[in-house]
Amino acid sequence: MCWTAKSFVRGLSFSVKYCPKGNHLRALCLCTTIKPNKCHILDWPRSPCNSTVPPGRILSWRLFSCKEGTKIHCKRGKITSITASELLYKDLLKSEQENWNKISRSYKAMTKRIKEKIEELYNKYTLHLESPRDFFFIFFYTYMGFSGAFIQRIRISPDERYLATSLKSENSEEATCVIMKLGDVPIVEEAIPNVFSFEWATNDVLYYTSQKNLKCQNVFLTTFTNQKYTKLVYTEQDARFFVDIYCTKDRRFLTINSNSKTTSEVWLIDCRHPFKLPVLVQARTKGVIYHVEHRNNDLYILTSYGEPAEYKLMKASVASTGMESWQLVYALEEKTKLIDLEMFRDHCVMFLQKAGCLYLNVIAFVSHSVQSIQLPTWACAFELEPHPEHASSTCYFQLTSPVHPPRRFAYSFKENNLIEQAAEEVPIIMNCHTTRLLAKSKDETLVPITVFHNMNSKELHRKPLLVHVYGAYGIDLNMSFREEKLMLIEEGWILAYCHVRGGGELGLRWHKDGCQHNKLKGLHDLKACIMLLHELGFSQPKYTALTAASAGGVLAGAICNSDPELIRAMVLQAPFVDVLNTMMKTHLPLSIEEQEEWGNPLADEKCMKYIKNYCPYHNIKPQCYPSVFITAYENDQRVPLPGILRYVQKLRKATLDHASRTGKKGNWIPNIVLDIQASGSHCDSSWEDSLKEVAKHLAFLKKELQV
Which Gene3D superfamilies match (predicted)? Predict the structure, then answer.
């Protein structure tokens, strides 16, 4: 069999195309062009390739470090040093593991039942979306010896002789770029460690960024000619910025994108002359984000430049790329979220969200017209199909929601119409009702809530409610399909997604209004959302649970301190719960970069006091808390285990102190459970591990809410 790039990628895309974003697929089907999310109830936020936040930089890297007194130990003739904190950490870790082993027995039977039910729904709604043609994956994972790795990215050289792919294990954030020469028998030409992004400039010139300690600041080129060599092309000096590589859809330019949380700078590499020095598009201007595409010798620039500070599509000649030459093509309406943008030869497709509904805006460059189509109201998320042909006359994408499996749609540029390409084997969800609400926050800002419940449910005030929140980095809550969410709907649960400030659901301004000195607004938003749900008869506090992950743990932990009476139970996954101590340690790799999100407490005393006012760890006090289940990972580089251990210890002490002070017999004492995973990391786990996590979380919630 002759292995051509076209047949290889066709097989990959056929197998990957219909994979839902939120699932690690079983066995060999683990491949996706964008790193997939975990499959769990916590809606792990991920960054799309064209996010305003640099890809891979959404969640900050949290490290544990201590400088306390050191004990010297001698082992096999070698002197090693162990700090007092490290000894304490080991003792706490052992204690928590023993505690979990005892507690987990009480959840075992229910966890098994939940796991079986989720697998049943997976087989019904998701499994058929995969291709049975797993030969390509068998080749990668077995024949080529790359078992146990996730494929993050695939790029084919223009002449289709080479395939470059990035592979990473579930216990590491660093990937290895493997370059294969395709032919009758594909062979590995090279394996480059610690690579984040890469693109082919020509048939045999590859550009890539190196990643170290979750930071990307160097760009290299490497050749696959007879005289192979590698050289450094670009270095970013500012620690706040993260660098990635992108290829324009017409393959005319590679772009070196250097982004902080709020500012961008782009350099161009002409693919016709890949060895020439990069050319600057526009020098970085504080607060201005921009991304670049190319068409007919013009740059199309997606940017926040100008008022209002929301995204606009502008253009400039390649010969004159400075900001003074940018001309407006299209501006988004107020409170409109740009979800994604795709360039075709004669059209630009924008996926937008406004007032909770999704829209497809198609800009025709030839006729200078704009076609706007409202997508089905049940849809909450979309996924553009990977690697669309630049000259295609049709744009293919999928629509989904937490309780609706992906459904494929096609927009025809020629016919100007939208067609659903229904698959007969995909069951249609008919018994779920979607409601969109607006809660009035403390400053009277209206905060969107998306609510799902079973249409056949009666007495909603007696039904369990699961509230979702994130509210950081301008990232939206993940609204893609999850089998476990559909299971909960079938069982009568209510699901609520609170789109609080700090997230990106209403555009760039919505994020700005919830970061740095505005963080408390997100907390006020969350409180207003939960209170409105209860007022409208969606459950009540004793049946209400809250779920969050990573930076979402800030608001979840904060509301447990300020208003614990609103919820009965909470599930957190790798939560960021000690903002102040982390931001005070500037020697940590990402603390300086994170100042654009949280502020700089070392340089600003007001900022220090403000963070201390909402930081979950610093505001724990003796009171009646909800029950809490926390999942943490030994290998987590972003939210290290020691910080979570300290939080759990302090929270347990506060609940016991409160119980002893009140002294009433039969007082309810919340369960504070910590499940420490030896495998997995902040962003990736295997399908089996993720499924187990989901089942344990739901078993805990059902027990605490007495469902």
Answer: alpha/beta hydrolase (3.40.50.1820), Prolyl oligopeptidase, N-terminal domain (2.130.10.120)
Distance CA 173, CA 196 (A): 9
Q: How far is CA 693 from CA 631, 633, 690, 697, in A?
A: 8, 12, 5, 6
User: What's the sign of the alpha-carbon dihedral 452, 456, 459, 462?
Assistant: negative
**Chain center to CA of 386:** 18
**Active-site pick, 401, 550, 591, 681:** 550
Instruction: Give the SS3 label for residue 151.
Output: strand
DSSP secondary structure letter of residue 503: B
- The one-letter amino acid code at 360 reads L
pLDDT mean for each 10 residues of the chain (707 residues): 47 34 28 33 32 30 29 40 70 84 90 94 74 45 59 91 89 87 90 96 97 92 93 94 95 96 96 97 96 96 92 96 96 90 94 93 94 94 86 93 93 92 70 95 97 93 97 94 95 97 95 96 98 98 97 97 98 94 80 89 95 96 96 83 89 94 76 87 74 94 94
The CATH classification number of 438-705 equals: 3.40.50.1820
Tell me whether residue 393 is one of the annotated catalytic residues.
no
Structure tokens given for 120: 């049943």
What is the C-alpha to C-alpha distance for residues 163 and 608, in angstroms, rounded to an integer?
Answer: 49
First and final CA of the chain: distance in angstroms?
56
Point out which residues pair with 450 in neighbouring strands: 436, 497
* H runs (alpha helix) in 536-640: 552-562, 579-583, 595-598, 605-614
| 74 HSE (CA, 13 A, CB side) | 1
> Residue 110 to residues 106, 218, 238, 476, 696: CA-CA distances in angstroms?
8, 49, 51, 31, 8
CA distance 516 to 287: 14
Instruction: Report the pLDDT value the prediction gives residue 666, as an integer from 0 to 100.
Output: 61
- Cis ω on the peptide bond leading into residue 308 (within 30° of 0)? yes
Task: Retrieve residue 436's tokens.
Answer: 């969109």
In the numeric block, the tokens 């926390």 are attached to 630
- Please state the length of the chain: 707
CB contact set of 387 (below 8 Å; sequence gap of 6+): 9, 13, 33
Q: Is 392 a catalytic residue?
A: no
Q: Which residues contact 607 (CB under 8 A, 6 or more apart)?
A: 516, 517, 599, 600, 601
Q: What is residue 52's three-state secondary structure?
A: coil
**Position of tokens 């690690």?**
24
pLDDT value for 517: 96
Torsion of CA 656, 661, 663, 664, to 10 degrees: -90
Domain ranges of the chain: 334-423, 438-705
CB-based burial label for 90 (10 Å; 0-12, 13-18, 19+): exposed
Coil, strand or helix at 583: helix
Q: Which of 682, 684, 685, 690 is catalytic?
A: 682
Which pLDDT does position 139 carry in this prediction? 54
pLDDT value for 507? 93
- The pLDDT, as a whole number, for residue 141 is 53
Which structure tokens are listed for 576? 């960021």
The CA distances from residue 159 to 14, 223, 272, 277, 485, in Å, are 21, 14, 14, 24, 44
- Pick the catalytic residue from 476, 525, 636, 684: 636
- Quote the CA–CA distance of 543 and 264 in Å, as a whole number: 45
Reported as type and span, the H/E element at residue 6 is helix 5-16
**What secondary structure, in 3-state letters, does 360-372 show?**
EEEEECCCCEEEE
Q: Helix/strand/coil (H, E, C) string of 518-552? A: HHHHHHHHHHHHHHHHHHCCCCCHHHEEEEEECCH
Do 536 and 437 touch, CB atoms closer than 8 A? yes
* Residue type at 269 in one-letter notation: I
Which tokens go with 573? 């996954």
Instruction: Tell me if residue 682 is catalytic.
Output: yes
